[in-house]
């Protein structure tokens, strides 16, 4: 018996008592755990920071007042000559001066975006248990391609409001029809000899700014 037969057999046994005309959303119980443990909001944010760092993202903490200075400092440290800013990014997040601003235009080609040094976005939700950022193409995040081509991505996460404990909790906040991008650390891959290479199909450097809303 193949692995495929084993898996399909388990599925058939699990659905043995389900009528063929049962609506999909009722066929399988969804009463599984939404989270593991009972972490406080602060502990959940701390867990997110640890797991982001474990995936080689660079994590920074600040508050709303200091956010423009933090972003300006990160762009300067990276040596960015220009930065792409999505149209809906809150203007008060960005420093008054700094690298030239690049607009997200529909006619921009991948070659145009490859000339962009950095991109600054918000996010839809951040998942603590997996160290994952989810973008959904909202105005403060821009098109999916603007976070896949430039080499340096600064992602701003409002804490604790945008932080959830688990993937099931995140799914309840997301709209499946939107263009979801799930990011766990900088882009990386390994060849057959397990040599890690970063920046192959996404930014080589991911910096996450956790902004306190309190």
Protein architecture, described:
24% of the residues lie in helices and 23% in strands. The longest helix is centred in the N-terminal third of the chain and has 14 residues. The model has no long low-confidence stretch (mean pLDDT 91). By secondary structure, the protein is α/β, with parallel strands linked by helices. It has six helices and twelve strands. It has one domain: 3-Layer(aba) Sandwich (Rossmann fold). It has a six-stranded parallel β-sheet, sandwiched between helices. Strands 8-5-6-9 form a four-stranded mixed β-sheet.
Short account of what is shown:
This is Lactate utilization protein B/C. The protein has 214 residues and is an alpha/beta fold. The chain is built from six helices and twelve strands.
Task: For the structure shown, list the relevant keywords.
214 residues, FTHF_cligase-like_sf, alpha/beta, Rossmann fold, 12 strands, globular, Lactate utilization protein B/C, six-stranded parallel beta sheet, single chain, 24% helix, four-stranded mixed beta sheet, 6 helices, LUD_dom
List the helices and strands and how they pair.
Blueprint lengths: L2 H12 L9 H4 L13 H14 L3 E6 L3 H12 L3 E3 L15 E3 L7 H5 L3 E4 L3 E3 L4 E4 L16 E8 L3 E2 L2 H5 L9 E3 L4 E3 L5 E3 L6 E8 L2
Parallel strand pairs: 1-12, 2-3, 2-4, 4-7, 5-8, 7-12
Antiparallel strand pairs: 5-6, 6-9, 10-11
Helix content: 10-25%
Radius of gyration: 20 Å
At the third CATH level, what is the topology name? Rossmann fold
Poorly predicted spans: none
CATH architectural arrangement:
3-Layer(aba) Sandwich
User: What is the strand tally?
Assistant: 12
Coarse structural class: alpha/beta
- Beta-strand residue fraction: 15-25%
Overall 3D shape: globular
CATH class: Alpha Beta
**H/E topology pattern:** HHHEHEEHEEEEEHEEEE
Q: Strand count, sense and closure of the main sheet?
A: 6 strands, parallel
Order of strands in the sheet with most strands: 1-12-7-4-2-3
The overall pLDDT, averaged over residues, is: 91
In total, how many domains does the architecture comprise? 1
Ends apart, CA distance between termini: 57 Å
CATH superfamily: NagB/RpiA/CoA transferase-like
Protein name: Lactate utilization protein B/C
Domain LUD: 113-211
Pfam family, one: LUD_dom
Organism: Streptomyces nodosus
């Amino acid at each position: 018996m193949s692995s495929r037969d084993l898996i399909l057999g388990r599925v058939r046994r699990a659905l043995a008592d389900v009528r063929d005309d049962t609506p999909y959303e009722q066929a399988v119980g969804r009463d599984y755990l939404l989270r593991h443990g009972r972490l406080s909001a602060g502990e959940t944010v701390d867990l997110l920071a640890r797991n982001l760092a474990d995936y080689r993202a660079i994590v920074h903490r600040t508050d709303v007042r200091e956010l423009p200075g933090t972003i300006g400092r990160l762009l300067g440290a990276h040596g960015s000559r220009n930065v792409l800013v999505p149209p809906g990014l809150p203007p008060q997040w960005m420093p008054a001066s700094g690298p030239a601003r690049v607009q997200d235009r529909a006619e921009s080609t991948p070659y145009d975006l490859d000339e962009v040094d950095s991109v600054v976005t918000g996010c839809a939700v951040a998942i603590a248990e997996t160290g994952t950022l989810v973008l959904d193409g909202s105005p403060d995040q821009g098109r999916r391609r603007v976070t896949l081509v430039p080499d340096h991505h600064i992602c701003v996460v409002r804490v604790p409001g945008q932080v959830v404990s688990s993937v099931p909790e995140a799914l309840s906040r997301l709209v499946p029809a939107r263009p979801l991008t799930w990011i766990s650390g900088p882009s990386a891959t390994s060849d057959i000899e397990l040599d890690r290479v970063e920046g192959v199909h996404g930014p080589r450097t991911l910096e996450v700014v956790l902004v306190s809303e309190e």
